[in-house]
Amino acid sequence: MKLLSFHDRNGRPSYGVLRDGGVVDLGERLAADGAPTLRALLATGQLDAARRIAAATAADLSLEGLVFAPVIPDPEKIICVGLNYRDHVAETGRTVTDKPALFARYPSSQTGHLQPLVKPTVSDDFDYEGELAVIIGTSGRHVPAERALDHVAGYACYNEGSIRDWQRHTSQFLAGKSFAQSGSLGPWLVTSDEIPDPSKLALETRLNGAVVQRTATDLMITDVPHLIAYISTILPLTPGDVIVTGTPGGVGAKRTPPLWMRPGDTVEVEISGIGILRNGVIAEAA
């Protein structure tokens, strides 16, 4: 099942299930049951209700005219993992650490599928980072790795857009990772029953059609179950939390010359079994 968040032609926010090239509007049907948003659907444990509705209902909205929102527009937490592929560690000149490097993003730093990424006026060093995103479906604390995937609602694509010169201002990543609408999450959440093993996926990032990153998710240094185990030891995971699992080698900052995203560019992150997250790039308004 593919779940997406959107605004309709009238600007009304909602979410639904992709079906037959259209959308079954779940927000309209389940708001009265305490699930007006996709995050609320996960929190109230109504995924099975969503499946029943989707199986029995024809699409009632066309994708045309809908504005995609980030899959989870209002996550409590976005936890990102740095340096989680060996080729990316090597290109940065760093060393592999025993534990994953973590940092946070904020909801305002991301946008949805087909919505523009915004290059800030203060920098030209706007870099792409194609990544697998894990969406938490069931709360957990001190989750053992062998049961970690039971807590996953599903998976999505992420472009962890980074403002590299601001990222290098200090040893902390937050400044370069928090500019408004610099990253994207989508196009939808594919439920975990359709992706039983997140280590068996292929990831590719393209800039203006040219492949700039390509990897297999089994090359992660810390895999998804152990990321969930480690993060849930630090803080409780709750439904709708997003874990962004790290980018492979090939980032623009480490190319000669550097390859930055520019206004007018199109960037795509494609992950097998999920789909293509596509965004144009625009300049920040004066």
Report on the structure:
Strand 2 (13-19) and strand 3 form a beta hairpin. With 286 residues, the protein is α+β, with helices and mostly antiparallel strands. It folds into two domains: 2-68, no CATH class; 78-283, Alpha-Beta Complex (Fumarylacetoacetate hydrolase, domain 2), CATH 3.90.850. Strands 1, 2, 3, 4, 5, 6, 7, 8, 11, 12, 14 and 17 form a twelve-stranded mixed β-sheet that branches. The protein is 16% helix and 33% strand. It contains seven helices and 19 strands. It starts with a strand and ends with a strand.
Q: Tell me, what's the shape?
A: globular
Rg over CA atoms: 18 Å
The SS-based structural class is: alpha+beta
CATH fold node name of the largest domain: Fumarylacetoacetate hydrolase, domain 2
- Indicate the proportion of strand residues: 25-35%
Spell the H/E element sequence.
EEEHHHEEEHEEEEEEEHHEEEHEEE
| Total helical elements | 7
Give the mean pLDDT.
97
List the main descriptive attributes of the protein structure presented here.
about 290 residues; alpha+beta; Fumarylacetoacetate hydrolase, domain 2; 7 helices; about 15% helix; 2 domains; 5-stranded mixed β-sheet; single chain
